[in-house]
Amino acid sequence: QVQLVESGGGLVQPGGSLRLSCAVSGYSLDYYAIGWFRQAPGKEREGTSCISLDDAVAHYADSVKGRFTISRVNANSTAYLVSLQMNSLKVEDTAIYFCAASGWTTARNMCIINTVTDWGQGTQVTVSS
User: Fold this and answer.
1) Which residues, other chains included, contact 25 with Cβ-Cβ below 8 Å and sequence gap of 6+?
2) Structural contact between residues 17 and 85, judged by C-beta atoms closer than 8 angstroms
3) Burial of 128 per CB tally in 10 Å (0-12, 13-18, 19+)
4) Which of 34, 38, 47, 55: CA 20 to 30 A from 97?
5) Checking phi first, is residue 53 left (phi over 0); if not, alpha (psi -120 to 50) or beta?
6) How does pLDDT run along the chain (129 residues), one tens digit per residue?
């Protein structure tokens, strides 16, 4: 099992930037992918950005490509810090953002198929003028 603790989020004007962070801890993390999913009111949860912890290969949804950047830093053998830099934010980016983990999968599969096995508690991102 993987533990996920999120930080960041908040209120920002359209065109602004926010950074989300997820502290990841557990064993065999090199076999995991970590992603940021979001859920807006009345909509299904969707994967926006996912990254493989071992080789840092990333996948982005078309809706965020070129605006969001996911990255990871290896703290030690049982901990990573995964960040999501969000630029040029739009009103439609407003949602609850969840950090998520999936073992023995690729970043692409995690984001598209949603192979998530562990979820963070979620953090609100609101883009409004």
Assistant:
1) 2, 3, 78, 79
2) yes
3) exposed
4) 55
5) alpha
6) 899 999 999 999 999 999 999 999 999 898 999 999 999 999 999 999 999 999 999 999 999 999 999 999 998 879 999 999 999 999 999 999 999 999 989 999 999 988 899 999 999 999 999
The pLDDT assigned to 75 comes to 82
Residue with tokens 């950074």: 19
Encoding tokens for residue 83? 């960040």
> If we measure between CA atoms, which residue out of 17, 23, 4, 15 comes closest to residue 82?
23
